[in-house]
User: Fold this.
Amino acid sequence: MTRSVNNSAINTILNLIKQQRISRKPDFNRVGGKLITMKNNYLLLFMSIIALALMTSVLSCKKDEKTSTASVVGYWDGTLGSNISLGLLFRSNGTVRLYEMSQDTSTAIKMDGTYEVSDKSVAMSIGIASLAGIVNDQGTVMTGTAISNESTYSFSVTKQ
Assistant:
């Protein structure tokens, strides 16, 4: 009987061990049957950082589209408001001369100022007046507004 008791005790212990194996929680340190060590965790982290850096650099190296800045240098002729003749002479050094009320620039009222171009927008400061215009896609017509003495006027000029 001792032997059967021993066998019975051994069987009971073996059954308990089998039940523990079945009911045991999964081992999260194993992936695909392989044990994940701390060294493997660092390697996985390092490789993830490298992959992220490569993806970021590839995506950020997209070629920038060049925006063309309108060339306004030259003489522009048109109107200010509904009936005032206007001429603008843009120089390459960033200065502009405004001719008002005459087609003949030798007898016109002249005012000098400065201008800045950003893409297709042109900002001018001439005496007490501020003008802001937009050049069309062809670079031939500029329309905008002029503000002087708290009065606002529209203007339209064509490149000559």
